[in-house]
Task: structure prediction
Amino acid sequence: MRIGIVTDCYPPHIGGIETQTYNLAQQLKQAGHQVEVITATRAGSFVGRRIEDQIPVHRLGMPTIGFTPMNPFAGPLFRAIFPHFDLLHVHIGVLSPFAHLALQVAAQGTIPTLATFHCELSTWAPLMRASGFFDRLVEAGVLFSGVSSLMNTQINQVLQPRNRRHWPIIPNGVDTNFWAANDQTAQKSAKPAPAANSEGLPTETANLGGTLNFEAVSAIRLMPRKRPFALIKFAQTVNDLLGSRGNFSLKIFGEGALLPLLLRQPQLATGQVSLAGRQDADGLLNAYRQTDFFITLCLHESFGIAAAEARASGLPVIVRSQSPITDFITEGVTGITADTDQKLAEKTAAALLNGKLKNLRDNCKRQPSPVSWERCLQATLAAYEQAREYRR
Result:
């Protein structure tokens, strides 16, 4: 199949959509399809079509301040390029003018078109629904999809009731071969928790006055939507619940606008929380192999790629039950969930003290991650067939 992948954002920019579209193109090529990428992201001053990592890439972006990927005049270029494909796969964020223009052009033609939403939509849903833009696309034969079950619900929020339905889910792909925990790698050896008493507390440790040490990790952008202050408060709450029976520390990887404010938090001075800055994949994997679990408290995200990578590395994931991350973890088996920060802290502290955390880690190592590029590719190809049927 000849597939055109359309995206505002693409490497050398760094981000979620950029990574997913690049890897998807590579996966489709390996599966035997002919793939080309059409993007508004420039690579230096280059504009045009060239082969990059064995994939033809059309870079159609204009020179802009801050290198913002856009080209409001790309319509004629789309009309010239699109007829070469059997199917178009357009990737959309909240603000994706290049992709939106591509969808307008695609809706006027007959090529099967799949549009995948990558960003949380609830904040913008009323405005997007009022515009009628997405209703016109659906009625013209464009099939929508999302990266999680939450996105399925939110896509319907931008549509009028007559156009709402169950849309395909295409989870983001994770390189499980890279992230899979290596059993030969030395793991951090925390003192094992003894059998719990009737109150769920480790009797032997309490009697001996011993202290258990636990470490958690998070990888987020330091911005309000990711709730880094809530993470710091969570660490404080867990320590308060553990009391003299345990010490809990949290290492947060990432960078962002809130860093100066976060550095002033007293939990950093006491060592309960540390800010480790941005790390590449190798650095994160090394950190994941030396910690007890991964946590994120973000409520407004479409998928949770960092949590998926941590889960693939063998870490249990601690997350709010409203998060789409619950698509790929199971409460009490490969993670812990609760509907409030306080309840989540209470369940986490109990799991640390009664030994349940070890069971979660063992489960995560035994059970393969439900998020992989194999499953992503399978879901993508199934959605392509649905897009062809929907267009007909």
